[in-house]
Amino acid sequence: MVELAHEIGYLRVHVYTNGTRPLDALADFTWVSLDGLGETLQRLRGIEFEAVLPNVRAMEVRYAIVFVVNTINVREVRG
């Protein structure tokens, strides 16, 4: 999909993921949705943080974390 978007003329292609699967798409930027660590991520999204971390670390593209603050995870935000 990323390759096709570039072929048809899109200048930048961003990919959004929850990080549960390895990505080999060469997007210009990748956004990883994580709404907490450990038990919080498990509670909010049903995802094991330990399963996500290796996939994020293996990314060969620029990426950032999307973190939606709510009443459950607000204590995990450090300023």
Mean pLDDT: 91
Strand arrangement in the largest pleated sheet: 1-2-3
Number of helices: 3
Q: Name the helix and strand elements from N-terminus to C-terminus, one letter apiece.
A: HEEHHE
Measured distance between first and last alpha carbons: 37 Å
The counted number of beta strands is 3
Give the topology, please.
Elements: H1 2-7, E1 14-17, E2 29-33, H2 38-45, H3 49-57, E3 63-66
Parallel strand pairs: 1-2, 2-3
Jot down its keywords.
single chain; 79 residues; alpha/beta; 3-stranded parallel sheet; 3 helices
Structure description:
The protein is an alpha/beta fold and 79 residues long. Helix content is 29%, strand content 16%. It contains 3 helices and 3 strands; from the N terminus they run αββααβ. The chain has helices spanning 2-7, 38-45, 49-57, and strands spanning 14-17, 29-33, 63-66. It has a 3-stranded parallel sheet, with no helix packed on it. The longest helix has 9 residues, at 49-57. The protein is elongated and about 45 Å long. The mean pLDDT is 91.
